[in-house]
Amino acid sequence: MNPVTLQKPEDGSGQMFDRIATRYDLLNRVMSLGMDRAWRNAAAKALELKPSHRILDLATGTADLALVIASRMEGVKVVGLDPSKEMLAVGRRKVLASAQASQVELVEGDAQALPFDDSSFDGLSMAFGIRNVPDRPKALREMARVVRRDGRICILELSEPGDGIFGGLARFYVHVVIPRIGSILSGEREYRYLQRSIAAFPRANEFADVMRSSGLQVLSTTSLGFGACHLYVATPKES
C-alpha cells in the first residue's frame, strides 16, 4: 500500500488543527471563495432560534459559527466545543473582541463523548467538523442525546460536487485550484488530509442515512455551492 494514502494517527485531530489555527479563517475564506459565511448564516437560520435558547456548537474551532448564532438573537447562549487548544485560543480572542462576548463560552472537548446532561441544549450546530470525527455514528448519537426532543440539529459539511455544468466547474476548482491554494495556506501535509477527507466523505443521501440510523430524524438536506457543501437539518427521534 502506498504510504502517502495512509491517514496519519494525528490527521483530523485537535493536534493537526493546532498547527493551522492561525491560518484557519483565511483558509476557509479563500478555499470557499467567501461562501462559507453564507453557509454559516444558513445553518444559524435553520436552528430557528428563540431568545431563551441554549445552543451547542461542535467543532467550533475559531468560533465563527458560534458568533454568527449569538449575533442573530439577543439572549441566546452558545457553548462552543472543540478538541484543538490553539483553535480555541484564536476563538477566545475573537469572542472577547466581539459584541457577543457575554453570550459565548468556549470549552475543550470531544464530540464523541460530550460532557453534558441529556436534553440540556435547545439546538446544536456543527460546521465542517463531522468528517473529522473517527466514529461519526457515536458523535451523532451524542448529538441526539444532549438536544431536547424538538430541538434542531444543523450540520454543515463539505462534499464532492455533483454532476452538471456547474458541478463540473466546482470539481475543477476543488481538484485543481484548491490544492495549490491549500498547500500554500495550510501546509502540504495538512492540506492533503483535508482534501482526502472531503473526497472520502459519504454522499449526502448516504450521510443522511447514517444520521437516521444514529437516532436522528432528518428534516432536510440542502445542497450549497453547487454541491460543494451540504446543510443537514435534523431533530432527535422520539424514544
Write a short abstract of this structure:
The protein has 239 residues and is of the alpha/beta class. It contains nine helices and seven strands.
Structure description:
The chain is an alpha/beta fold and 239 residues long. The protein has a single domain, classed as Rossmann fold (3-Layer(aba) Sandwich). 44% of the residues lie in helices and 22% in strands. The chain contains nine helices and seven strands. The protein has a seven-stranded mixed beta sheet with strand order 3-2-1-4-5-7-6, with helices on both faces. Helix 2 runs antiparallel to helix 7, helix 3 packs across helix 4 and helix 7 runs antiparallel to helix 8. The longest helix has 22 residues. The termini are far apart. The N terminus is likely disordered.
